[in-house]
Design brief:
The complex is a heterodimer. By secondary structure, chain A is mostly helical. Chain A is built from 13 helices and 2 strands. In chain A, a hairpin with a 2-residue loop joins β1 and β2. In chain A, α1 packs parallel to α12, α4 packs antiparallel against α5 and α11 packs across α13. The two termini of chain A are 17 Å apart. Chain B is α/β, with parallel strands linked by helices. Chain B has a single domain, classed as P-loop containing nucleotide triphosphate hydrolases (Rossmann fold), CATH 3.40.50. Helices cover 32% and strands 27% of the residues of chain B. Chain B has 8 helices and 12 strands. A 6-stranded mixed beta sheet of chain B has the order 6-7-8-3-9-10, with helices on both faces. In chain B, strands 2-1-4-5 form a 4-stranded antiparallel beta sheet, covered by helices on one side. In chain B, α3 runs parallel beside α5 and α4 runs antiparallel to α5. Classes of the chains: A mainly alpha, B alpha/beta. The interface between A and B is medium-sized, with 24 and 36 residues.
Chain lengths: 320, 255
């Protein structure tokens, strides 16, 4: 059942789905284009959602390779909540310029990923459980502080839900539009940088020692991926809040369907992530009576998914 | 020519613990076939990792081709040392055999350029030597242990480095593949390569290599031509009684 031979068919299907869904999204499932004003807002939300999905899925894919753990994802590892802490601190410090948030956000997300990495590294090898548990507790810790800080600042109280769990319906003034554009473009660009190291990432799937033996400077690649994923995640989180599970689900599905070579895995994960987040946002807008934060909807998708991964890993031992 | 030189090398993962490698000094000449033997926990694998730079030794402790191993960029080092760590790639679902073998040429390609015809012909030769040309399109996880061992040897050959260092290359192999592997290594030695292999089975090590390095509790008990090894020393290190019959060693338990 080697589906990988026909990967371009799957890519075609994905692209068609993506285009079709993009149209449905923009027309809000009415097949009619709305008046100019509303159309502009919808397209803005579409772009934010698309880029956020792209960046998070691509980050998840690179992190999973570099940490050799299919459960790695910026949200689960505490990278996103690190970024949130940076944002909450900026808000408390009275900074009102939203695009300045991404700098402290980046700082804390980088700290989070390196902290988790060195926590889980025992005598030169990564302990899978420590990686995930470390992320879990880092999330509790960061989210606790974020919640506390935001509650202190009463005027952001009603935003908390959306900051903590993600929302792409951002409101920007005409003047801020170019800045938003630049931030989204930068996020997409930085998240795509691991594409320059796809051979090296392929080699790292063989394990650190084997990759080193092939001449790959594993530490250099790892640091690079840590920086690109935390920088792009921090940019996205400072626009949309923390959106989880995209980076967990999409790359694993893509790996299963069209294989794990990074030349294909990374860009296709990006597109898959965009589609998934558009779907989740539509559910949020259309299905629920109030707009639900995205991580809530994605979390519901992610649970059966998580069991699927655990199941697969369990069966791996029975092979050969 | 000393291809590898070790000077007063000690190592422990945790500083406060007793070192796993204790003040080793030795050198290895070009064109040697050396096997490293020793009981479990004697530090064989740690020594392997230090000699291949997989873990970094202290400054000026391990020299490869006369130069401190830490000063080589990784990509440069593998042109001198081809390392075969004990297998961890069995379940890889990402790469096919051909992809894996192409990665062997990674140190020789620059930037965005792909492999050259020379690279492909080197890979073809490696496939021929190891008789794996039928496996090219298979994913690594689909291979049997014996096939995987051959594919990894092919990777090592395709790297075309000057020194081959292997950590238990015969583990999990059936007897026919073990014999094939030692034959292949001897041929590579004849082609001027320096071969260093950690071998769990002393009998195989004794039979096929030229030199032995006996490691016990992080120290070198013996290093030299296998004919010169004192059987009493081996008996003490491995806690067995040993008789030599022709070229082979026979073992008896001591209790």
């Amino acid at each position: 059942m080697d589906m990988r031979k026909n990967w371009y068919i799957y890519l075609g299907v994905l692209l068609i789905l993506l285009f079709a869904f993009s149209y449905l999204y923009v027309t809000n499932f009415t097949f009619k284009l709305p008046p100019q004003e509303i159309l502009r807002l919808r397209i803005l939300r579409f772009v934010v959602t698309f880029v956020a999905g792209y960046v998070l899925a691509m980050s998840g894919a690179s992190l999973q390779t570099i940490l050799q753990n299919p459960l790695a994802d910026p949200y689960i590892l505490g990278v996103s909540s690190g970024a949130l802490l940076g944002i909450a601190l900026s808000k408390i410090a009275g900074i009102s310029f939203q695009y300045a948030f991404s700098i402290p956000a980046f700082l804390f997300s980088v700290i989070a990923i390196f902290f988790i990495y060195y926590l889980a590294r025992v005598r030169g090898s990564l302990v899978k459980e420590l990686l995930i548990l470390g992320g879990l507790f880092l999330n509790f810790f960061f989210n606790g502080i974020v919640f506390y800080l935001l509650v202190l600042k009463r005027e952001v109280l009603e935003e908390i839900l959306y900051i903590l769990w993600g929302f792409t319906g951002v409101i920007v003034t005409e003047g801020e539009l170019p800045l938003l554009g630049i931030a989204l473009f930068l996020a997409m660009l930085i998240a795509s940088l691991p594409l320059l190291k796809m051979k090296e990432l392929d080699a790292i799937t063989l394990g650190d020692h084997e990759a080193l033996s092939l001449g790959i400077d594993v530490n250099k690649i790892r640091n690079m991926v840590f920086f690109t994923t935390s920088a792009s995640t921090a940019l996205i989180v400072s626009i949309t809040g923390a959106i989880g599970f995209i980076g967990l689900m999409i790359p694993n599905i893509i790996k299963k369907i069209i294989g794990g070579k990074h030349a294909v895995l990374l860009p296709v994960s990006g597109l898959g992530g965009a589609l998934m987040l558009l779907v989740a946002d539509s559910v949020s807008k259309v299905v629920a009576p109030v707009e639900l934060p995205l991580s809530i909807i994605l979390g519901i998708f992610a649970v059966p998914f998580f069991f699927w991964i655990v199941w697969r890993q369990r069966n791996e031992g029975n092979r050969g | 020519m000393k291809v590898i030189e070790v000077k007063e090398l000690s190592f422990s993962y945790v500083k406060s613990f007793e070192p796993l490698i204790k003040n080793l000094s030795f050198s290895i000449e070009q064109g040697t076939f050396l096997t490293i033997v020793g009981p479990n926990g004697s530090g064989k694998t740690t020594l392997f990792r230090l000699l291949t730079g997989i873990i970094k030794p202290e400054k000026n402790r391990v020299f490869v081709w006369g130069r401190d191993i830490n000063t080589y960029p990784r990509r440069e080092l593998v042109k001198y040392i081809s390392a075969l760590p004990s297998t961890e790639i069995i379940h890889n679902e990402v790469l096919r055999v051909d992809d894996y073998l192409e990665l062997a040429r990674y140190p020789y390609i620059s930037g965005f350029s792909g492999l050259s015809d020379v690279d492909y012909s080197i890979i073809e030769t490696a496939k021929k030597i190891t008789q794996i040309h039928k496996l090219g399109k298979k994913y690594l996880w689909e291979l049997s242990q014996g096939e995987l061992a051959r594919v990894r040897i092919a990777r090592m050959i395709a790297q075309d480095s000057k020194i081959f260092i292997m950590d238990e290359p015969t583990a999990h192999l059936d007897i026919d593949h073990k014999l094939w592997l030692f034959g292949a290594l001897r041929r590579m030695k004849a082609n001027g390569k320096t071969i260093i292999a950690i071998i769990h089975d002393i009998n195989f090590a004794y039979r096929f290599s030229d030199e032995l390095l006996v490691l016990s509790d992080g120290r070198i008990e013996f290093l030299g031509k296998k004919e010169d090894v004192d059987l009493k020393l081996l008996e003490r290190v491995f806690n067995v009684r040993i008789k030599r019959v022709n070229e082979d060693l026979l073992f008896e338990e001591t209790f």
